[in-house]
Design a protein that fits this description.
Oligomer: single chain
Number of strands: 4
Shape: globular
Strand content: 5-15%
Structural class: alpha/beta
Helix content: 25-40%
Length: 164
């Protein structure tokens, strides 16, 4: 995205695995300054995926207390057979995934058919797409859906145990 803002051509984003070292370094820097407060990592779409790839390691050494993924990309659109969930199947870090019910990267029906550990909680956003936007006649609004997202994240963080 930065390259496009400076006149560069549109290119696909880097692979999530290549972003892990930099993400981990940033989190470790923040953890040093957390001063006993809860540190929860996460991101939207690929940012959440990158966070989920490093979460267990950081959780086990008590640098983070939880993980929040907004619009997790369970698979590329229209290719549900190409799952990006192997690492989630053994996740022990407390996690919340907030997902639109009709997200093309993993709809409610598709995700509920997966075997994911109890450490992962879900909040389904009414008639939401990948950006939580509903269809016009669904009875849901973008503003309402985004408020639901914020409330879910706040409740998840509040329920996490206090750091020791």
């Amino acid at each position: 995205m930065a390259a496009r803002r400076t006149g560069g051509s549109r290119r696909p984003p880097p692979k999530a695995e290549t972003l892990m070292p930099e993400y981990r370094d940033v989190v470790r820097s923040l953890a040093k300054r957390a001063n006993g407060t809860k540190l929860v990592i996460g991101g939207k779409s690929m940012g959440g995926r990158v966070a989920s790839l490093v979460a267990d390691d950081l959780y086990k050494i008590r640098e983070i207390h939880g993980l929040v993924c907004l619009g997790y990309p369970f698979h590329p659109p229209n290719t549900p057979e190409k799952l990006r969930t192997a690492h989630l199947e053994s996740l022990s870090c407390p996690a919340l995934i907030v997902q639109g019910e009709r997200d093309p990267f993993g709809s409610r029906a598709e995700v509920e058919a997966l075997s994911l550990p109890p450490a992962i909680g879900f909040r389904w956003i009414g008639d939401g797409d990948h950006d939580f936007g509903p269809r016009g006649r669904s009875g849901f609004t973008r503003k309402g859906n985004l408020a639901d997202v914020a409330d879910a994240v706040a409740a998840f963080i509040a329920e996490l145990p206090q750091p020791r």
